[in-house]
Specification:
The protein is of the alpha+beta class. The protein has helices at 20-23, 40-48, 193-198, 234-237, 250-257, 259-262, 265-268, 270-276, 292-300, 302-312; strands at 8-14, 31-39, 62-70, 74-79, 97-108, 111-119, 123-124, 128-138, 175-177, 182-183, 199-205, 216-219, 325-331, 337-342, 348-352, 363-365. Strands 1, 2, 3, 4, 5, 6, 7 and 8 form an 8-stranded mixed beta sheet that branches. Strands 10-9-11-12-16 form a 5-stranded antiparallel beta sheet. It has a 3-stranded antiparallel beta sheet with strand order 13-14-15.
Length: 366
Amino acid sequence: MKKKFFALVIFAFSLFCYSCSFLGDCEQNSGKISFFFSGELASKMKNASSRTVSNDEVGRGLFLDVALKGGFLAQQTAQLLDNGTSISFEEIPEGVSVFAEASAYEKVGDEKNILYTGKSESVIINEGENIISLVMLPYVADEPSDNTSGDNSDPTSATYIGSKAPTETKSVGSIIFSDGSFENYSDDLTFTEVQKGAAVAVIFCLASDSPSGKTLGVGLRERSGVMWAKSGSIGEATNLETSDSDGSGNWAVIQAEDSYGANNASSTYPVFDFANTYSVDGFESDWYLPAINELKKLYSAKSMVNSAIGLIGTSSDVVSLGNYTYWSSSQFTSSTAAQYCNFSGGSVSGTSKYDSDNHARVIHEF
């Protein structure tokens, strides 16, 4: 019985360093990539290569598109003939995280009939040879939509900033980019300048362990010396029925109690104004001040979050979590106090809402 899976190895050319304008070091080591194919496509390739391809079949055989994504973006197309094929990607520095997507198709005129697709796991480029494994399986088209053009689009055309698509499983420490894609944290992970500039958040809590049942990420900017509520405001003197578990609705509680003050949040409720106006590319809204239990989760993940932020590089827009007291959006037992968490040791208590010694971070569901 013939084996279902065969292997085909395609060797790419050596990979060279990035442009000096990005890395400032043309001597950075680079690696060599080999693609290892398995699955039904490999079987078809093996069978097809056992016979001669006639001249009139050239141009009507299988073509292979391979797209390299993640920390480096590139795409190559080659025809699969008896003498094989080669695909090369150049100028990929050592330490960059990449993955590959591929599609094999028949080409008739300008039309593509996709037959097989595959996607690899992420690999971090090392000096020397690197193997990227692609399991090529029969392509199943999406269900028909309102678009009736009959276009059989290439599934490798979607390009993400990170190697993980937005819908894939995240972990604590995952770095989120502006298009919703992400990279899972690892000690040897490095980012391109484009990725650093596109980072928007770090995951600190997964839905399975979240007090609000949501996967949450913390924004990279911070506000210091900010009040919870202005002295003498309605919110400052009121025992507000805020949540300790989910801060996404706590601003609405204040709005219901003090609509006038809420309309002047920058002076009346400065810390909430910071959250309400927080905006980054791709995630312009829906950031909020964490409830106390969400804030405690952030403290628990402080070390991992700061390690991930270290990969991005600190600046005025990228700030590590410090040993400060951070505001929550949750009411304390006293009507004139709100809860905070001390990130020096993790203790939780309350302080006057008009205390301006505290810091603030905002969070977002991902």
